[in-house]
Design a protein that fits this description.
The protein is an all-alpha fold. It has 9 helices and no strands. The protein has helices at residues 3-6, 13-25, 30-42, 52-59, 63-75, 80-84, 100-111, 123-132, 141-150.
Length: 156
C-alpha cells in the first residue's frame, strides 16, 4: 500500500508558504530542508502526487525516508513544524560522573607518589586505585586519561 493513501499529507496555503520559505532561504539545517522538500512533494492539496520512488529520487532521499516523513506528519497531527524539526529527546542526558571534586581528587592522586613497586602512575594503575577509593566513583582508565589530558596533567 502506498504511503500517499495510508498517511496523506494535506498542507494549508500558509503551511505551504512556510515550507517553501524554509527550502529557499537556506538558513535552516540540511535535514530540515530535506524534510520540508519531501512534505511539499507529498502535498495532495497542490494536485496529483508522484509515486514515492519518484519523490525520493527528486529530493535525494530513500523511499523509506519519504514513508517515514509522511508517517511522522500523520502522527504529529498535521503539525508541519513538529514534522520538519528535530525530535525531542525521550530521555534526559546522563550526567557525567566526573564532577569538579572528583577531578580534583583524581589529579591529587595522579600527582602523588606512586605505590611501592611502581616507578610512575599508569592509567590502569590509577583505575585500580580509584576503584579502591570510597569517595570517588569507579572510572574507566580512558575516562581518567581524558580528565588528566583536559587539565594538562602528564603522568610521570
Amino acid at each position: 500500500m502506498s504511503s500517499h493513501k495510508k498517511y496523506p499529507v494535506v498542507l494549508s496555503a500558509e503551511d505551504r508558504r512556510a515550507l517553501e520559505r524554509v527550502t529557499t532561504t537556506g538558513v535552516r539545517s540540511a535535514s530540515m530542508i530535506r524534510r520540508a522538500r519531501v512534505l511539499l512533494a507529498l502535498d495532495t492539496s497542490a494536485g496529483e502526487v508522484a509515486p514515492r520512488a519518484v519523490i525520493a529520487e527528486r529530493v535525494g532521499v530513500s523511499c523509506d525516508s519519504v514513508r517515514l516523513i509522511s508517517k511522522r506528519y500523520a502522527e504529529a497531527g498535521g503539525d508541519v513544524w513538529a514534522t520538519v524539526g528535530r525530535k525531542k529527546r525521550a530521555l534526559p542526558p546522563v550526567p557525567s560522573p566526573v564532577t569538579g571534586e572528583v577531578e580534583a581528587r583524581l589529579i591529587a592522586l595522579a600527582c602523588s607518589k606512586p605505590p611501592k613497586g611502581h616507578a610512575r602512575w599508569s592509567l590502569r594503575l590509577l583505575e585500580k586505585h580509584v576503584a579502591l577509593a570510597e569517595d570517588i566513583p569507579d572510572l574507566d582508565h580512558s575516562t581518567i586519561g581524558r580528565v588528566l589530558k583536559k587539565r594538562n596533567c602528564a603522568l610521570m
